[in-house]
Amino acid sequence: MQVLSEAQHEPGFCTFFQECGLNPLLNDTFIPAIVPCFDYSRARHLTGEHYRRLKEVCPMLDKGENNTYACCSIKQLSSLERSLTLSKAVLIRCPSCAENFAHLHCITTCSPNQSQTINVTQVMNVTSQGKTKLAVVGYQAFLSTTFAEASFQSCKNVRIPATGGFAIGTMCGRYGAKLCNPQRWYDFQGDSSNGLAPLDIDFQLIKEGHTEGLPEGVIPYNGRALMCNETTPSGGQFCSCQDCEESCPKMPPPPQPPSPFMLLGTDGFLVISIILLCLLILAFLLYVSVACFSRKRKDEEKGKRRGKDQNSNDVTQRDIDPSEVTCADRNSLVAQDFLSLQFQRWGTLMATYPLTVLLLSAIVVAVFSAGLKSIELTTDPVELWSAPNSRARQEKDFHDSHFDPFFRTNQLILTAPGRKGHIYNSLLFGPQNFSGLVSKDLVIELLQLQTRIQVKTSLKDVCFAPLNPSNPSLTDCAVNSLPQYFQNSLDNINAKVNMTELGVTKEVDWRDHLIYCLNSPLSFKDITDLGMSCMADYGAPVFSFLAVGGYENDDFTNAEAFILTFSLNNYARNSTKFKVAMQWETEFLKIVQEYQKNPACNFTFAYMAERSLEDEINRTTAEDIPIFMISYAVIFVYIAVALGEYSSWRRILVDSKFLVGLGGILVVGCSVLASMGFYSWIGIPSSLVILQVVPFLVLAVGADNIFIFVLEYQRDVRKPGETRQEQIGRVLGNVAPSMLLCSLSESVCFFLGALSTMPAVKTFALYAALAVLMDFILQMTAFVALLSLDARRQDNNRCELLCCVKVSTRRPNKPNEGFLLPLMRKYYAPVLLHRYTRIIVVKLQILFQCKLTKIILFLVQGSYMLDYFKYLYKYFEVGVPVYFVTKGGYDFATVEGMNAVCSSVGCDQFSMTQKIQSYLAIPANSWVDDFIDWLNPGSRCCRLYTFGPNVGQFCPATEVNVFFFCFLLPATRFMAYHTPLTNSQDFTAALLKARELAHNITLGMRKIKGTSPDFEVFPYTVTNVFYEQYLTIVPEGLFNISMCLLPTFVVCCLLLGLDLLSGLLNLLTIIMIVVDTVGVMTLWGIHYNAVALINLVTAVGISVEFVSHMTRSFALSIKPTHVERAMEATANMGSAVFAGVAMTNLPGILVLAFAKAQLIQIFFFRLNLIITLLGLVHGLVFLPVLLSYFGKCFIGACLCTQ
């Protein structure tokens, strides 16, 4: 080989001409490396066939047949055309780019002034066909920076639709698209080691006007390069928007996000809340003032006899004239008398035949509960939270029926914290940062783990194998990991070779290959002398964001995490193959967990299988069952102790209510079992949420009724001549209407809540409604009978657990008020209802309400899923895949139809894929663009038949059936990636925007001639079915809660004899409890979702217990003033509510704080604690004060009756 130092450079002269044979310095090239003969001579005049070929290959050199000269032969033109065809396959989407690329190589190969543009630096003798000639194997090409920069700019944004990457990334060697620039682009083109260049070309980019260092006579080529938004002289259209920013139509700027709501220079909602607070306080003070003034005027006019109560509140006593009693009062009292009489008769009957009643109750419960044998528990999160008729479910079903379900993902994210990194001085890439993770020993360890999982789990039986789905081998399985850059070969990782670059010889190894592949994952051969491919062993590229994570600015080798992903085929849940996939995932988790416990493991990692979320929910729910059992045990112990009378130490075993408390718990349990059994009979599945929430709810409701009934019985004295059964019946007649009011309100409330579209909320409401109803029925039957038996035992002075043992101390014949009633009557009620306290309470309530009105997670502690999601959000560089799916009714076979979808040259500026590009992180993979590339005569891409009589044979682009097939497509899809999404707000916003984009695309494509009117494009992501609820959760919640609030008002009005005022006060207090609950949820970090909505529906039911009993007790009081009636209701009914609801719930709730599942901690412990405390405050603090001002009572009718 000779190195030339001097050469002549004159216009009209060639430096080389004709082909001399193959370059002896190169082997294993993609195309024959044919080199030209060194021949300094004049340019040849072209005519005939020679001229025609030049005009086809290099039209920019055409000066007319009589005036065209060139420095290339016909053979050289054919070789040049063959070489350009390979490049055009990835650049043809942008004709001006392809034209500029061809322009450059036409100038260096065929220009008539070739000697002025190039400078031959290396020649050697080449023997071909028995002749030895001097051939050029290296030269310098001089280009102006203006031409070079313009050419590069026209090509830098050209996409490869099949991969979503940039074409320039495959043509810039180690630098990839991110770091590519004109010099590096041309250096790669001139590097003979890339397998495409037949010889070494040293491109010298010279700034205009700079001549220093140039060989004499050399003039850097400064032709005009086309801009990407220009048409080509040969008629090629300008590049598409996706490939050329300059071609994009001018879009109006997006609307600015709404500015914060401001008033008077500050938070508008705060200002409104302050104004509302002031108005409400002023209105209240005005009402109090007017009421006091009006009362004094009336007292003076009618000469009333006035006194003072113990709190200096006005007391007015006078006789009630029957004419003063309104019709509404009479109706209310008639309703109360009727209900009391019926319940009295019923209670007497139940108490008379207790054993028969208990037997019949047990039979009814057994019949209902027998349905439990066929109970179905819904554990599939999709079935649980997404309605079958919801848009997301319908879209998922359509996608899965046409494309199979989205593949199952099993993934590890591995880190190695604490390991020290290093700087690797690469021969080819210069100094590169390598993190402590990216080291040879850890790469090998990762490969060993991957191989162990592949071999021990029979991966090929279930894996997703996109290139060989019918009969996959282990190497056909889609496994994405860093070792795939080495084709999972330990020999490739250990490979090393000495390489010379720019006169420097140095060893290159796995690190050089990895650097290259991370930046150019589509390459079949790296630029090192290792010559290894970057493609995975299953035949597809592994993009850097699927192999490593936790890097910045594409500094891949400084990554903090390895990502190892196994993709499995997905199947319907009733398929046997689904069970096989689930079994593989079980083995996968077992291997990974064993590896994590291995002391030799050098990784800290998180992992998940597709089944993990469902498994973890089931596991932690099972682990928390003891916590629930302890919670129920605490509640039981409290009920058993609190229901006792304890009048004497000698009678403690007689007066205790252990069996009554146990009976009350059994009544609750039987009502839940009966409800679950009934719905199992009719085929409505249950869920773990129902098993956890419904018993708790029914226990809260049932315990309250038990306390009200038992305490009323204990505080009552048997009348002379009255039997025990009659006394129980009379007591039941007093309290049962109140129990009916609450139970009926709650049951109707939950039945209406079943109108919800969310499956979990709907089934919960159905189960809760029937359970509450059954609880009331059993309380009116079995519990009355049980109390009758216990009263008979107590009357006989028999011990509770030792029925044969009697005590001599007899039961005192006086009411037993216990401890709580006197305390509330003597201290709490007078203090609460003092005239100044009442004003303070109202003001504080208004302030609290305004503040909270302004304000308005299935993960597990100790679960590997929690660690996995933390790693996922921290290290993953892209979001979830999203498919834009087209339904049938669109004609892809027409030019207009294709143009409305594709993104290459000639396509509509607002085509489907163009719009997707403007929205997503990685543009859509478009089969239409691939199809167009295949149809392109300039593309030499080969296709084979995959079905039909010609399987395995070449499929020509002229195949007519291809177009017919396109027209009949029932569905197609275009895949892209979201940007990283880390929380429910991100996923919801992504879903909303994707749907807006799909709707816009649908409207545009429907305008294409021949498109069906019902044609539709929709976005499909596997997470849509879970996050769709957030799009409608607010209106859905308002609807459900409104449906629950409605019966509380209607039932209260009806059972109180059309008393609208009591119904409104009752409704107002419950609404305030729900609103305040939502406000405190925000303060305590409880997110509003479907589980929270279930608890808010529950809150309505529990609030009824705190409120309705008090409202009815106040309405039936015959005390002379509102304040005294409120005191009586607070003392008598408030003590029962406090003991029955608050003190029953709180001990059990506090136990739940020790649960492992965050679902339990947040939505059961926190939320139920909030509901109970707010119900207690509103029911026993605010409501008595509210009733003392605005309450309605039947005092006139009651006094007249008396």
Automatic annotation (TrEMBL):
<keyword id="KW-0732">Signal</keyword>
<feature type="region of interest" description="Disordered">
    <location>
        <begin position="301"/>
        <end position="321"/>
    </location>
</feature>
<dbReference type="Pfam" id="PF12349">
    <property type="entry name" value="Sterol-sensing"/>
</dbReference>
<dbReference type="GO" id="GO:0015485">
    <property type="term" value="F:cholesterol binding"/>
</dbReference>
<dbReference type="GO" id="GO:0030301">
    <property type="term" value="P:cholesterol transport"/>
</dbReference>
<keyword id="KW-1015">Disulfide bond</keyword>
<dbReference type="InterPro" id="IPR053958">
    <property type="entry name" value="HMGCR/SNAP/NPC1-like_SSD"/>
</dbReference>
<feature type="transmembrane region" description="Helical">
    <location>
        <begin position="764"/>
        <end position="789"/>
    </location>
</feature>
<dbReference type="GO" id="GO:0005886">
    <property type="term" value="C:plasma membrane"/>
</dbReference>
<dbReference type="GO" id="GO:0012505">
    <property type="term" value="C:endomembrane system"/>
</dbReference>
<keyword id="KW-0472">Membrane</keyword>
<dbReference type="GO" id="GO:0042632">
    <property type="term" value="P:cholesterol homeostasis"/>
</dbReference>
<keyword id="KW-1133">Transmembrane helix</keyword>
<feature type="transmembrane region" description="Helical">
    <location>
        <begin position="1064"/>
        <end position="1084"/>
    </location>
</feature>
<feature type="transmembrane region" description="Helical">
    <location>
        <begin position="625"/>
        <end position="646"/>
    </location>
</feature>
<keyword id="KW-1207">Sterol metabolism</keyword>
<keyword id="KW-0813">Transport</keyword>
<keyword id="KW-0443">Lipid metabolism</keyword>
<feature type="transmembrane region" description="Helical">
    <location>
        <begin position="731"/>
        <end position="758"/>
    </location>
</feature>
<keyword id="KW-0325">Glycoprotein</keyword>
<feature type="domain" description="SSD">
    <location>
        <begin position="624"/>
        <end position="789"/>
    </location>
</feature>
<dbReference type="InterPro" id="IPR000731">
    <property type="entry name" value="SSD"/>
</dbReference>
<dbReference type="Pfam" id="PF16414">
    <property type="entry name" value="NPC1_N"/>
</dbReference>
<keyword id="KW-0153">Cholesterol metabolism</keyword>
<dbReference type="GO" id="GO:0030299">
    <property type="term" value="P:intestinal cholesterol absorption"/>
</dbReference>
<protein>
    <recommendedName>
        <fullName>SSD domain-containing protein</fullName>
    </recommendedName>
</protein>
<keyword id="KW-0812">Transmembrane</keyword>
<feature type="transmembrane region" description="Helical">
    <location>
        <begin position="688"/>
        <end position="711"/>
    </location>
</feature>
<comment type="similarity">
    <text>Belongs to the patched family.</text>
</comment>
<feature type="transmembrane region" description="Helical">
    <location>
        <begin position="658"/>
        <end position="682"/>
    </location>
</feature>
<dbReference type="InterPro" id="IPR053956">
    <property type="entry name" value="NPC1_MLD"/>
</dbReference>
<feature type="transmembrane region" description="Helical">
    <location>
        <begin position="1091"/>
        <end position="1111"/>
    </location>
</feature>
<feature type="transmembrane region" description="Helical">
    <location>
        <begin position="1038"/>
        <end position="1058"/>
    </location>
</feature>
<dbReference type="InterPro" id="IPR032190">
    <property type="entry name" value="NPC1_N"/>
</dbReference>
<feature type="transmembrane region" description="Helical">
    <location>
        <begin position="261"/>
        <end position="288"/>
    </location>
</feature>
<dbReference type="Pfam" id="PF22314">
    <property type="entry name" value="NPC1_MLD"/>
</dbReference>
<feature type="transmembrane region" description="Helical">
    <location>
        <begin position="1131"/>
        <end position="1155"/>
    </location>
</feature>
<feature type="transmembrane region" description="Helical">
    <location>
        <begin position="1167"/>
        <end position="1190"/>
    </location>
</feature>
<keyword id="KW-0753">Steroid metabolism</keyword>
<dbReference type="GO" id="GO:0008203">
    <property type="term" value="P:cholesterol metabolic process"/>
</dbReference>
<feature type="transmembrane region" description="Helical">
    <location>
        <begin position="351"/>
        <end position="372"/>
    </location>
</feature>
